[in-house]
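User:
Can I borrow your eye for a moment on a structure tokenisation matter? Would you put together a sequence-and-structure record for a protein of your own picking? Please set it down just below, with no commentary around it:
AI:
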Amino acid sequence: MSDKSKPSEADIRKRAHEIWEREGRPQNRDQEHWHKAEAELAAAGPQGNEGEGSKTAALAFDRSQTEFAQTGDVAGKAKAARDALDGAEGADLRKAEAAGRARSHGEDPELNRKSGKGPSKRA
């Protein structure tokens, strides 16, 4: 954030877009996402990004997941995700997943352990 006292319009816009993406790109909720973004950025305070283990981000994530679960459309979103994987987006989604895994540098040893690709003993 450029001004330490409050987030810039660009910061709010970026965060609102992230919220919109996270919530499945719903239509006609731009004002709600803008207000959520303002609130999250204000809660983070002037320090901005709290880094790994951010309590603000964790609380916002928990809140959004609770709201999502309460909508009752979990099955509908799961079907939409299956359809996306089976449809034209599937190849792009698998490519993005592979790119993300390639960048992880083994940060989550459980991924290797579950797939049988890495050492099975802890150091």
